[in-house]
Design brief:
By secondary structure, the protein is of the alpha+beta class. It has two domains: 192 residues, BirA Bifunctional Protein, domain 2 (2-Layer Sandwich); 41 residues, Roll (SH3 type barrels). It is 23% helix and 31% strand. It is built from six helices and twelve strands. It has a seven-stranded mixed β-sheet with strand order 1-2-3-7-6-5-4, with helices on both faces.
Length: 234
Amino acid sequence: MDYLYIDEIESTNSYCKKNIDFISDKTIVYTSKQTRGRGRFNRIWVDLGHENIYLSIVLKPSTYLDSVYSNLTQYTALKLAQTFVIYGVNPNIKWPNDILVNDKKISGILAETVFSQNILKGIIIGVGLNLNANKKDFDKIDKKVTSLNLEIGSAVDKNQFLNKFIDNFFADYEKFIKQGFVFIKSDYEKYINFINKEITISNLNEKITGIVQKITNDGAIVINDKKFYTGDIL
């Protein structure tokens, strides 16, 4: 693994996309200040200050797109949840990949792929971590959010958290790439709380409401006997 720290950057994901040819496999690009952080569906990730971490993991497992790569966000979410547990909180995964503590978002993930002439140049897993913040910082955000220091009542060493997460991420990475979502399914299910409950998801400009029957072996959720691989739980 290689680490690349940049004091200030528009977006770690954007930087990695632009420089993908020069960044080696399993490189972690991270910063304490993002000026144009991005989340899923082109949402803005608000920078809460220097004591938080914004990072991208660059992965180059092959030159072709394997179906298992679409589950890397769920794998990342699991590894994040397990890292938060070390700090004494009880996280939930909001399918497919947000991390919540007490129903408030504490971390988000944005995965992007880079192709050139049908050759996969790399996969970029972007992660925003709310580790240290003041409650007044959340006035900038129109959703329920939290930070780890507020949940545990003390400041968090951001570099220590980063190291714990990255070690956890790569501990099972090779096995996951070989076996796919089924390798983490039982562990992933421990951090979700919507099986057999009614939810509404937004998917391709359509809203679907129904009982979540199960998660499949390839990471989809089943609602009203239909499989969904992407969407946003409302």
